Amino acid sequence: MASLYTNFITRCVFPVHEKLKKHDTVAVKNAMEQSQWWSPEKLSDYQNQRLQSFLRSVNEHVPYYQRLFTDLGLDVDSIKTAADLQKLPFLTKPVIRENSDDLKADNASGLARFNTGGSSGEPLVFYIGNERVSHDVAAKWRATRWWDVDIGDREIVLWGSPIELGSQDYVRLVRDKLLRTKLLPAFEMTEAKLDGFIEEIKSFRPKMLFGYPSAFALLAKHAAERNIQLNDLGIKVVFVTSERLYDHQRDVIEKTFACPVANGYGGRDAGFIAHQCPSGSLHITSEDIIVEIVDEQGHVLPAGESGEIVVTHLATQHYPFIRYKTGDIGVLSDELCSCGRGLPVLAEIEGRTTDFIVAQDGTLMHGLALIYIVRDLEGVEQFKIVQESRDKTRVLVVVNANFDEQKELQIKTGFQQRLGQTVEIVIDKVADIAAERSGKMRYVISHAL
Fold first, then answer.
1. Band (187; pLDDT cuts 50, 70, 90)
2. Residue 159, φ and ψ in degrees, nearest 5
3. What are the sequence ranges of the domains in the chain?
4. Which of 20, 28, 81, 377 has a 20 to 30 A CA-CA distance from 287?
């Protein structure tokens, strides 16, 4: 049961906060809490209605899509269902960069400039309007409540985005204090920083944690190695997002904090796409989000087959994301979740296309094929795999006294078995492995794809 303070925040303070920002978050969240229980058929009909209205607005107000529909000789009213989106080309990062101004609706106001971190290449600059913000916050809020926690409950956020960390002005500090949210920077995860984070968590006693899975896994491992107990703080759930969640990360986080890990999938560019419910499924926010899975040729794949995740966000009429290629690999499910929600399910998120590697003979495989070799070796504290070419792969490792020449040989032998016997494997022992500029940790980077 929510505390009196939490009820005051969710029913009074936060609604006023959102209204002052001209956001419709509360109304959208309330509607989503009703629609999540609709049948898949009713949700699909609602999604198609929104799609038609969305595209008419885009065609009327967005110069890029006005030209596109004209060039294609396409009547916007011919797109009536999600399947009809295949009549349109994909939206890619280069297309956005080349047409940034023409992607702005001529009736848009209050667009805010955002950018991705650019950890896998050149940062992407784009714009977000109030409608998109309201819907994204509402989707996250709904998912938060699935786990019996709410806005106003004590929360610690372990994050590394310069946008969040650069905006700690007086108003934001006051807001975070009212909402009982504490932000910890995930840029530096040194032993001293980890000790400080643990003390913050113990003294603050949050009900929920939110951040990168790699950061919480490292924090949990650090606590376990020092026999620091964090399983008696009353934490109900750890929300993780923005990176692939690996099984070993989930295990160490859940064991250390004595609570479940709830995975979330999305990005600053594509929006909040899917959230995990207590029954274990990643539910797509289908009221706002249409997800397609496509192969390398751009053909839409059926449920159960792996391909790139393509997103159409229906709350982006002022800066549209239509058939946006995310660069992530995933699988759709055609099964309903046992929780009873009609929301469609992402069966699997396999990672970014850059989390894959290619063998010398051209065979494509997930980076896990190499990760497992290094991760389970005694003596390896941290690691990062960089495939420089099909003929050379570099492994950065932070090691302890248990790492010896035999372990080094195991890495080289294991990698060559998967990549090719003549591939050069270079092992660099380093004192520390820095996170990306965003604060995320990437285990595999390939420059050979």
1. low
2. -140, 160
3. 359-446
4. 20
